[in-house]
Amino acid sequence: MPPSDRILSRLLALHPKRIDLTLGRVLRLLGRLSNPEDHLPPVIHIAGTNGKGSTLAFIGAMLRAAGYLVHVYISPHLVRFHERIRLGGDEGAPIDEDSLALLLGECERVNAGAPITFFEITTAAALLAFSREPADYVLLETGLGGRLDATNVIAKPALTLITPISHDHHEFLGDSLAGIAREKAGIMKKNVPVITGPQLPEADEVLAAEAARIGARHLRYGEDWQVYEQHGRLIYQDMSGLMDLPLPGLKGRHQLMNAGLAVAAIRALGPTRMDEPALEQGLKGASWPGRLQRLTGALARLVPEGAELWLDGGHNPAAGQVLAETMAGMEEKSSKPLVLIVGMLANKDMAGFLAPFQGLISHVVTLTIPGEDNAADAGDLAALAAGLGFSVVAAADLTHAVRTAAGLRKGGAARILIAGSLYLAGQVLAADQK
Prior knowledge:
Layout: H1 3-11, H2 24-32, E1 43-47, H3 52-65, E2 70-73, E3 85-86, H4 97-111, H5 118-132, E4 137-141, E5 159-162, H6 170-173, H7 177-184, E6 194-196, H8 201-214, E7 218-220, E8 225-230, E9 233-238, E10 241-246, H9 255-268, H10 276-285, E11 293-294, E12 308-311, H11 317-333, E13 338-342, H12 350-354, E14 361-366, H13 378-387, E15 392-394, H14 398-407, E16 415-419, H15 422-433
Parallel strand pairs: 1-4, 1-5, 2-4, 5-6, 6-7, 12-16, 13-14, 13-16, 14-15
Antiparallel strand pairs: 2-3, 8-9, 9-10, 11-12
Helix pairs in contact: 1-4, 2-5, 3-9, 3-10, 4-5, 7-8
């Protein structure tokens, strides 16, 4: 076992809960580390329910294309924890094992066994790394919510972004969309621009009111900026003018909005050496594993020639909606029967995620996410899907699920989508890379 894995295992035992939202513990540890959060390059802080990772990927790709060094912090990881911390000098590559082990070990020693959640202490490690390595920007993604998220310790970021908000994490953020929006709005800071993506009216009202209350310049989608597709191009428009750009490299209609939010962020940063070719290169070249990614490795070899195997970590009703719309768009361009392989956590809105696929997919294959204590049972998920009118098969494991999905269509030319959880997405990527 690598040294970092041994330390990570010990860090998991420092608090009885995986999630316990407060800022007190992380601020205490950061204070003992000489407050690295106060010694960072300009920070772009991103919250929201869906699209945070993709928006971050577009911003990072555009900044790097212009020659900037960019630190990145994301969560969760898909295959290895190292993915969460990316240093600018390595062009966005995951942190190396030796550096990670040293960082985690230092934070563990300084914490001295005090209660702290896994996310809090690993966030402190990331901020410590970013304070020691030169870069031009830090892209900081919230873990959960915003107001009490461990990343919300930056007194004055350069910019805050809030992607579309929807229902998720009810047990921590509440059941009302307005309440969830208030938690996400907690990353806003006085005199710091905040850019918000497309929002449902209930969330939009909360975000606008909070920006006005604290004195943050609010750039709203549909009012201060907009983006749309025209003749196979991405058209972005704000008060400074119109830009004619290539469509984003990431698949899915929803990526148009994520790309637009990223362009709005770049424009709001003010004078930079960013030019239009850098924007174009970043839009086309951005990559984000596990987000509507076509698989081509070991798992893909289990499906017949002519079939397609896709992966997405979407796991809430809003994600189900955009995935269903994207699959419908693929069907219009190239007709193939769609089979959905789904595994989810038990605390997710499984019916809400599956409902948008009604009338679109031919079969559903369910599986229990291996190794996840809170995974929904494949049989229970199958019963729920059958109740929604789907033709369902419960699979024993991932390989069985892929083989089953591939065998459901005698012609062999199915389009198979694996979705429902980022935890499942990580296991799928690991299996496909073998």
